[in-house]
Amino acid sequence: MTAATPARRTAAFTALGLLLVCTGAFATLHGVQHMPLATGLKAMAAPLLPAGWLADIPPSYRAILLTLRLPRTLLAIIAGAGLALAGAAMQGITRNPLVSPYTIGISPAASFGASLAILASTDGGAGSYAPVVVAAFLAALACAFLVLGLSALRGVTGTVLVLSGVGLSYLFGALSSTLQFVATEQQLAVIVHWAFGSVNGATWEAVIVTGLVLLVVFPVLAAHGWALNAFAAGGDEVASSLGFAVARTRIVVTVAAVLVTAAIVSYAGVIGFVGLVAPHIGRLVVGGDHRVLLPFSALVGALLLLLADMAGRMLFAPVVVPAGIVVAYLGVPIFLHLLLGRARHGA
Predict the structure, then answer these.
(1) Quick one: pLDDT at residue 104?
(2) pLDDT averaged over every residue in the chain
(3) In contact, 262 and 272? CB cutoff 8 Å
(4) Dist. CA 171–CA 168, nearest whole Å
(5) How many angstroms separate the CA atoms of 83 and 101, rounded?
(6) Half-sphere exposure (CA, 13 Å, Cβ side) for 329?
(7) Per residue in 41-80, pLDDT tens?
(8) What distance in Å separates the CA atoms of residue 302 and residue 325, rounded to the nearest whole number?
(9) Which burial class, exposed, middle or buried, applies to 235 when counting CB atoms under 10 A from its CB (0-12, 13-18, 19+)?
(10) Residue 28 Cα distances to 88, 207, 229, angstroms
């Protein structure tokens, strides 16, 4: 793969950043209730403005923007960025382009935890969402540490990590299917809706929690950019010869990727495609240097999930299609176009 020039990387970051900002503003201001740009911006800044400046803004505008649309837009950006960041790190540390955070069982485990909480609730999961979030998060972490524990028995290599995760994915998938089999119709509907993956109903709590986790995890993964380059270039042998602690680095990167993925999945449900395709799009644009690839993949993932949510919300209104479904329809053609275009260029 030919390395991208600094000028090309700068242009790509600038263009993608501007596109993300414009898309986020459009998604926030447009919906069933359309709002003019100036009115929408003033409504979003309402908590910071004097009361006299807000006389011409209907209270419903402020309520729609500050409690519905803005949290939804921010959660889509954070979730897409976090999943893509985790996917790029996992692909680098395992040298496997088909790996994503879900490969080690995070998605099926979170689904099992959420299903268990829904079945255990007295209201069938229709009431408080907090137990579902906590159960999904704990189940995802338990699966991740179980994968690391099994891998440690045979040496923490990329192959053992992936195979352990695949095995546990089937186990938690079977457990989730068992719970769905014994669930009532109401419980089953809640479980299936959660498993679709969506930022519909996003809250400021979800934005703050996932945002804080992403802010903690990103510097950790970015600090391992050189190590990820060594793993991706030549595997454990090259990384070890360059002075990197192979087992410790793999554990730290995996735990960081799992933490951000578990936090996102707990609130947004199963959105599995972003973590796989965004890093590939990033490599095609800016190259394989993880010091650049990690932040660029995060921007790609944020834009991809934001576009998917916006399309699912607007194209079929008043029906809202979950982002987890739309993102695959949206991302696969983009990914195949870039991949086939590069293949023709390379030929």
Answers:
(1) 79
(2) 82
(3) no
(4) 5
(5) 8
(6) 11
(7) 666 666 655 555 555 666 777 777 778 888 999 999 999 9
(8) 16
(9) middle
(10) 28, 15, 37
Amino acid at 162: V
> CB–CB of 246/236 below 8 Å?
yes
pLDDT at 155 over 90: no
Output the pLDDT for position 347: 44
Tokens of residue 4, six digits = 């991208």
DSSP reduced 3-state for 270? coil
pTM of the entire structure?
0.88
- For residue 99 the two structure tokens come to 């790996």
Whether 340 has a pLDDT exceeding 50, the answer reads: yes
Inform me whether the pLDDT recorded for 160 exceeds 80: no
Read off the tokens for 87.
């996917």
Q: Which amino acid is at 346?
A: G
CA atoms of 254 and 248, how far apart (whole Å): 10
| Ordered alpha helix ranges (H), the chain | 6-29, 37-44, 59-64, 70-94, 106-120, 130-154, 158-182, 185-196, 204-223, 225-241, 246-268, 274-286, 290-314, 323-346
